[in-house]
Amino acid sequence: MRAFFLLLKHDILHGMDEIALIKKVALSSAKKAGRILREGMTRGLTISYKGDLNLVTQIDTLSEQMIVSEIRKHFRNHQILAEEGHNYESASPYRWIIDPLDGTTNYAHRFPYFCVSIAVEFQGFIVLGVIYDPIRQELFVAENGKGTTLNNRPIGVSPVLNLREALLVTGFAYSVKTDLKNNLNHFSHFVMKAQGVRRMGSAALDLCYVAAGRFDGFWELGLNPWDTAAGFLILTEAGGTVTDFAGKPFAIDHPEILATNGKIHPAMVALLGKGKSTIGG
Ligand code: IPD
Ligand code: CA
Ligand code: CA
User: Fold this and answer.
1) Global confidence as pTM
2) In a domain, 278, yes or no
3) Domain holding 222: CATH number?
4) What atom of ligand 1 comes closest to residue 173's alpha carbon?
C-alpha cells in the first residue's frame, strides 16, 4: 500500500514537473519566435502563395522551425499540430498547437498587428494558451483554472452590456472571394447595431483583445485550430464566453467562433441567427 502511495505521489509530482516545464518551454519559445518576427520586419521578405490570398513568408517557416525544435529538445514524444506543416502524431496525451505567425498578411505589409500563438492540449483539453505580440511586447498567458495574465498581471473582459456600446472585431477567411459563406451579411448587420466593428487581421490577437476588455466581441467563419486554440483558453479564463454562432459549445476544429465578454453573447447569437452565412442565401 505504502509503495502504491509513493508511486502515486511520484506520478503526481512528475506530472506537476512536466506541466511546469511545458509552460517554461512554451513561454520561452513564444518569446524567441517573437524576436524572429520582430527582426524579420527589418529584412526583405520572400513571399509565396498557398492560395489566391493566403500568403506565407520565410519568417512563418523560420518561426515554426524554432518553436518545434525547442519542443523536441524537451518532449520527444509530444504530438504537434503546426500551421506550416511540422506535424507529429503519437500516443502521447499532450499535443502542441502552433501558429508561428498569426497575421501574415499584416506582416507582409509591415502593419504591426500580428502574434505567435501556442496552445497545449492534454487528452484533448486545452490546458495552456500563450500568445505573444512582439511589437507591443505583450504576453498573454492562460492556464486551465488559473485565470489569464497579460505581462504577469491578471486581466478580465469588459463590463459592456449591450451591442449599442460594444466595439466588435471580425475577420474574413482567405476563401472570401469564392466561398458563399463569406461573412459579409453578418458584417453589415453588426455595423448597423454595434458602436463599431473592426477587421484587424489576427484572429489570435483579436481573442486576446476581448480577454483584455479592449474589444467586447469577436466572430469569424472558417478558422483553423492554430488560430483559436490558445485564444480560446485565454478568453475563457479571463471570464469570456466562446461558442459557435448558435451559442453551442465551441471546439477548435469547428468552422464558426463567437467569442464575447459574456454579457453581449445572447444579443450576438440572436443577430447571427438573423443573418445569412451565404451571399443572397
Ligand atoms: C489569419 C488571421 C486572420 C483571419 C484569417 C486567418 P494567418 O491567419 O488570423 O485574422 O481572418 O482567417 O487565416 O494566415 O495570418 O496565420
Ligand atoms: Ca492564423
Ligand atoms: Ca499563420
Assistant:
1) 0.92
2) no
3) 3.40.190.80
4) 12
